[in-house]
Structures are given as C-alpha cells and as structure tokens.
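Data deposition worksheet. Section B asks for the primary sequence of the deposited chain exactly as it was used as input, without tags or linkers unless they were present during the calculation. Section C holds the resulting structure in token form. Section D is free text for depositor observations; keep each observation to a single sentence. Incomplete worksheets are returned to the depositor.
Section A, Depositor: J.P.
Section B:
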Amino acid sequence: MTSPSKPYPPQWEQVADLRVFRTTTQEWEKLIGWRADMQKRGWKLLRVASEGTEMVAVFGRTKGDRAPAPDRLRSAP
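Section C:
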C-alpha cells in the first residue's frame, strides 16, 4: 500500500488527473448524489479503501478526457 497522502500507485499520475476524497464511512453512504455528479462530469471512481476510521476514495479522469480549452469552445466567425 502507498502512503496515506497518496493512496494510489505513482504511475496513475502519468495518465490521469486524480482527486482523493477522505471521509467517514457514515458520511460516504450519504454522498451517493455527489458521487453520481462526479461521474456525470467525467470522473471515474478508481478505488475505495478504508484507512483506520476513514474511507478513502480515488477519482480519476484520463488526461485525454479533459474538457477542451476555452479557445476551442468559440465558434468560428
């Protein structure tokens, strides 16, 4: 297992943007709507583990799945 500050393999950082979320088990159960919203925004739940009394969730989005830069969103004149 990796250190508590980075509960994922280092190579994941090479291919994905990562977000680590720490909470209690009870609060995790209450956050089903938030988790669904993360998935709608393109984040995938990669790992859930417990560390002591905490739940640790790692969400990831491959770097190729990022939203386009703002200049790409403009329509042609």
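Section D:
DSSP finds four helices and three strands in the chain.
The chain has a mean pLDDT of 82.
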